[in-house]
Amino acid sequence: xxxxxxxxxxxxxxxxxxxxxxxxxMFLNEGSxxxxxxxxxxxxxSFSESIKKEGYEVFVDTADTxxxxxxxxxxxxxxKKYGGIDIWxxxxxxxxxxxxxxxxxxxxxxxxxxxxxxxxxxSKIAIPYIAKRGGGSIINLSSFCSLMPTAKNGIYSxxxxxxxxxxxxxxxxxxxxxxxxxxxxxxxxxxxxxxxQIGTIEDMLLQPISMRKFGKxxxxxxxxxxxxxxxxxxxxxxxxxxxxxxxxxxxxQDPWNNYMGGY
Length: 263
Known about the structure:
7 strands
């Protein structure tokens, strides 16, 4: 299926690893021009080198979603290099595992600033550039925590729930400018960041997943690229859940064991 993404200019925040990096690869494979920023110079340089070995070129630089000016400067560099912006993917995110009652204000502010306010900042920067091209797409990365909050990961859960609401409001407000805004809600995805969790509580993490396997970054990247493409041209304000059927029912594993789970 032709995604019609050739020569489209794509910016991905926090795109040097995991879901962001795989999303960059998929856009590049579709013929898009991709720009990625992150906070760590060595990390984005390493990503750039790995992409070159695969036969692609990606524009990289440092920027921080907590610093709007740095994102604005990055966008200006991308426009100078590629002539405009068509698609903006708000992917950057952080977590602090701490109960809400005992978390300090600094941790709260940092997660909200990156995971929610950073999405608003990125979108705000992208809007005039995308509108100038006659329209385009903004894709926000949410989380299954936004649908079913996680104890000890409450700040992240609250921030991502905010992303879902922000997505719907912006989708309505930007429709007259032909800018579609959608979000992707990943389930549990196997990445470098989650490998330690998987190793210690794998069975517990698999229990609610109907497909009984963890997702991969490319599973989420496929959804992002689809939502950005013309094939999703009438999809706006949608939250696409990509979770392998997480919590479809209370007894997700019973169909796998001939309904011997006892309920």
